[in-house]
Design a protein that fits this description.
This protein is α+β, with helices and mostly antiparallel strands. The protein has 6 helices and 5 strands. Strands 1, 2, 3, 4 and 5 form a 5-stranded antiparallel sheet that branches. The radius of gyration is 15 Å and the shape is globular. It binds zinc ion.
Length: 168
């Protein structure tokens, strides 16, 4: 069973070919996101009425809302939100956090986030799953992938636990 960290392995294999220093990374795309513009999670709602409240600290009410807000955070380069909403048992959360943060920054910087399609949402009381296709481009190439993500609720907060790739 292949595990994934939002396609981070693919990204890392790409960046090994063209290693870039973290200090060359442009500022977060957050600067360009108007709160009244469509939300980058592809919901067709304004960012202000969609993922922004979660990025500002409101707990996402469902694993699906958390999943969308994490995709949106990737698109906007809000890497601290990604880290904050990852379960402590996820392998990435158990390693060096500053290296992880840098990897996330590079991933966000070198990826275009074209859209999100939710395939399935299985809701449970303390564990839920969301299957989705993320439409990404990296180095000009199509890097779309489908994943089934597992979420667990801890202390009233939904957190991303793990994911596995789905056949396209
Ligand atoms: Zn959204």
């Amino acid at each position: 069973m292949a595990t994934s960290y939002f396609n981070l392995e693919l990204f890392l294999s790409l960046t090994k070919k063209s290693q870039r220093a973290v200090d060359k990374i442009k500022p977060s795309r957050m600067q360009n996101q108007n709160r009244y513009s469509p939300c980058p999670c592809d919901s067709k709602s304004p960012y202000d009425k969609c993922c922004r409240p979660y990025h500002q600290g409101l707990p996402a009410p469902t694993a699906l809302a958390l999943m969308r807000s994490r995709y949106c955070a990737y698109a906007l380069g809000l890497v601290d939100y990604i880290i904050k909403t990852t379960h402590g048992q996820n392998p990435a959360a158990q390693g060096d956090h500053s290296a992880w943060r840098n990897d996330l920054l590079r991933f966000c910087e070198q990826t275009d986030f074209d859209g999100l399609k939710i395939l399935q949402f299985e809701e449970g009381k303390s564990q839920s799953s969301v299957a989705f296709t993320a439409y990404l481009r990296q180095a000009g190439g199509d890097s779309r992938f489908s994943e089934k993500s597992l979420f667990r609720k801890e202390g009233g907060q939904w957190l991303y636990l793990s994911g596995e790739f789905l056949d396209k």
